[in-house]
Amino acid sequence: MKALNLFGLGLILVLSGACESMLDTKPQGVVADEDLNEPEQVEKMINAAYSFVGQNHFNKQMGMPYEEGTVRGGEAYKGGSGTNDNAERNRWETFTYMQPTNVGDLDNLWWVHYVAVGRVHDALRRVKNLTAEQYPLREQRIAELRFLRGHIYMYMKQCFKFFPYIDEDTPQDMYDKVSNDALSDQELWGKLIEDFRFAAGVLPDVQAEVGRPTGFAAKAYLAKTLIFAAYEQDDNHNVININREKLTEVAALCKDIIDNSGKRLAPDFAENFLCEYENGTESIWAIQYTTDTQTGRLNSWLVSPVNSDYGCCGFLQPSVNMMNRYKTVNGVPDFENFNSGILLDNKAAFAATPMDPRLMHTAAVPGMPWKYEPSYIMGENWVRTPEVYGYSMSQKLLVSPTSDCFKKTNPFMGAGLNWDVLRLDEVMLWRAEALIQLEQEMDEALRLINEIRERAANSTDRLKFADGTPTGRFDVQPYRPGQNCPAWTKEFALQALRWERHLEFATEGKWFFDLVRWGIAAEQLNAYFAVEKTRRSYLRDANFTKNRDEYFPIPEVQISYVKGLYKQNAGW
C-alpha cells in the first residue's frame, strides 16, 4: 500500500540522515512510538483515525463519493470547465477508459482508504494492548474503531469489489503478501458484517460526544452491509440470488432502529442540508465538519457556483434525466413518460409541470432562489461551462454564503456542514425494500414509503419566491393502489421503492451503487446514455459495458507494487 511505503520511506530518510551523536538525543517535537501507548495518547490516536475519515481533498477524498456514486449513476454530469478538467473523472462518467488500469485518481482512491484504515489499525493495536483497568473505555473504543474500519472498507467494497483485507493483526511485513482474492465476495462482506455486528453489541445507545457512533448507528450500518451482501453476485457481477436470511435480518434491524432509537423524520426535508439542524432528529451518524479550524476541518467541495460569492468550481451538475424523474402525474412519479415532453430543467417548466418538491432541495437553475433564500437568485453566469453541461447546479452539499458555517478559503470555499452517512429515511427505505423482496408485510412497506412521500409533500415552506409564491407546481401524494397507481404487487412496489430512493438521495453518492447491487446497472445506464447523449454531445461515446463497469479496475500501480499478486477485476 502506498501509505505504508511512504511511512517506511520517511523513517529510512530520518535514520539515514542522523549522525551517531544525535541517536542519543530525543529530537524536539517528535513523539517516540512507545510514548503513544499511554491511555491519554491512545485517545489522540483514535481521534486521528476519526479525523482522517473526513479527509476531503478533491482527488484524495474520504468524504461523500459524489463522483463515484452520483456522476457514474447518471444523476449528474461531472461539470467543471469541460471534459479535460479532471479528465479522468470524465472517463469515469462515460465509462470510456483509454488507460483503464493505470490512472492517478483511481490509485488515489485506493490509496487514501488504506491510509485511513492504517490509522484505525494503529489505534486498535494500542487500545488492545491496554487493560480495562488502565483504560476503562477499552471495549467501547475498540467497537468505535471497528465501526470506522467497516465504514472505510465499505467504500472499497462498493468501488472495487475485491481488495486485500488487512486488519490490526496483519504483520506489517506481510502487507504486500495479502492478495485481493484471498477472500470470496461473500467472505469479504462477512468481514464487514462482523465489524458492525461487534460494534452493535458494544456501543451505547447514546454517545455524549457527537460524531461517535452509537449502537443504533452500528445496527444501521450492519443493515446496510447486509442488504448489499444479500444481492449475491457471480464472478462477472451478475446478481444470481437474493439471500432471504440476510433480508430478514435487515428488516428486523431497521424496525428496531425505527421503533427504539428515538430518531424521527425531520418535518422538512431541508433540515437535512442546513447547518443549524445537523446532528438532529433524523441523523443517525455523520462525519463532523466545522468552520473552527482549531478544532476540526471544513467540508470543502468543488461543486460551488462560480459567482463572486463562491468562486469555484462548478462540478456536479444535475442531469436532465435526474431532474425529469421528479415529474408527477396524479401525485406519483411519471414512471413511463418522465423523460419526454417538457424538460424539467428550467424555471418555466418548474412553474408549469407537476413535480415533487424534493427537486428544489436538490438542484437549481437560473432564475430560481438559491439555497432557500428568496432574494438570492441564481444567474446564468453562475455556471462555468453551460455549453457543455447545461445550466443546472447542485444544492444539497452547499450552504448559503450568508450562513454562519460558510467560509472562503481562496481559491476554494468550505463549510461546516456535516455529511450524514446514515439517516432515518434510508433505514425506513431499507426496511421497505427487505419486506417487498420477502413479500412480507407489504402494507407496512407501503406505509413506510408513503411516510417518506408525505414528508416530501410537507417540505415546501422554504421553497418560495420573494413575493411568497411557490417556486414550483408541487404535487406529491402517497401511493393509493387502485386509485393513483396500480395494485401494490411485488413488481410495482419494487419500482416505487427504487424510484423513492432516487428522489430522496439524489446527488448524495448512492445511486450507482444501488444499480449495481440490484443487478440493473447496464440496463439503466445505457438507457440513460441513449437519450442523454442527444442533450449533451460530450456523452456521444458513453457506454456501460456489462460484466466490467460494475466496478473499477484494480489500479495498475497497486498490482505492480505487489509484483502481480492482485487479481484484476472481471472484464479488465
UniProtKB/TrEMBL annotation:
GO terms for cellular component: cell outer membrane. It comes from the Bacteria. Keywords: Cell outer membrane, Coiled coil, Membrane, Signal. Residues 281-572 form the RagB/SusD domain. The keyword Ion transport does not apply. Residues 431-462 form a coiled coil. The keyword Coiled coil applies. Transmembrane segments: none annotated. It is found in: Cell outer membrane. Pfam families: SusD_RagB. InterPro entries: SusD_RagB_dom (IPR012944), TPR-like_helical_dom_sf (IPR011990). Belongs to the SusD family. This is Glycan metabolism protein RagB. It comes from Parapedobacter pyrenivorans.
